[in-house]
Amino acid sequence: NEDVVLSSLTSSTTNEFFEVVIGGSIVIPAAYIFFGEATKEIAASGAFNIGFVILPQIFQKIPLSEIIGFLWFFLLFIAGITSSISILQPSISFLEDEFKYDKKKSVLITGVISFIFAQPPIFFLNKGGLDEMDFWGGTFFLVLFATFEVIIFAWIFGIDNAYKEMLRGADLHLPKFFKYIIKYVTPLFLLIILAYWLSTVGIKTILLKNCPPENLPYILGIRIALCIFFALIIEIY
């Protein structure tokens, strides 16, 4: 009976407005002013290079650099903490619902697993560990699972059933034309993105075409660990 329409609309619009509109309007022009065309190469060289490499260099060239740098990384820290809570909460709820664990035990198990999988990006940062984890978790699987979810939601569960669920307990009612957007436009849009991305970048990345030979053992180790992790989840589920 939760108002999923209002809560999802609020969270998504607020996040995108600050992250994409305001953040992009500040960070990208500032980076281009200081680094010019090299900004594209720097951003392409790593998932977080704009935030952790380019901007600190920019801060050194402007007044009050220590204060502005502190505020920047403090806000990044807050964003990371709040995002982590929302990401981990479904896992905690899963352990509570399926295994009847109490909150403390569910949080402990989730925390231990998260701690273990946080180590490769830390210790193998210069070996491509962070980019590899971000590729699967923040790029490929993000779009892939979203595509599966919308197809299951709109086609298998049924768009009429889905629409009824969205209206139940909702103060904000979606117009009916959103049924067609969710059923046809969104899956098609996501499939086009996946197909284009796989044909241009994705297949090369998955097959490690551009992976430096010295990083290959670390990347393969991370992939094996992820496969084991997913196999355990499937087996438990």
- Average pLDDT reading: 86
Radius of gyration: 21 Å
DSSP helix fraction: over 70%
Return the string of H and E elements: HHHHHHHHHH
Secondary-structure-based class equals mainly alpha
Low-confidence stretches: none
Question: Main beta sheet, described?
Answer: none
What does this 3D model show about the protein?
The longest helix has 35 residues, at 65-99. This protein has helices at 4-35, 38-44, 49-59, 65-99, 103-117, 119-123, 129-156, 159-167, 177-206, 216-236. With 237 residues, it is mostly helical. Helix 1 packs across helix 3 and helix 4 packs across helix 5 (103-117).
Short synopsis of the structure:
Helices cover 81% and strands 0% of the residues. It is mostly helical.
Brief descriptors of the model:
single chain; 237 residues; mainly alpha
Secondary structure elements and pairings:
Elements: H1 4-35, H2 38-44, H3 49-59, H4 65-99, H5 103-117, H6 119-123, H7 129-156, H8 159-167, H9 177-206, H10 216-236
Helix pairs in contact: 1-3, 4-5, 7-9
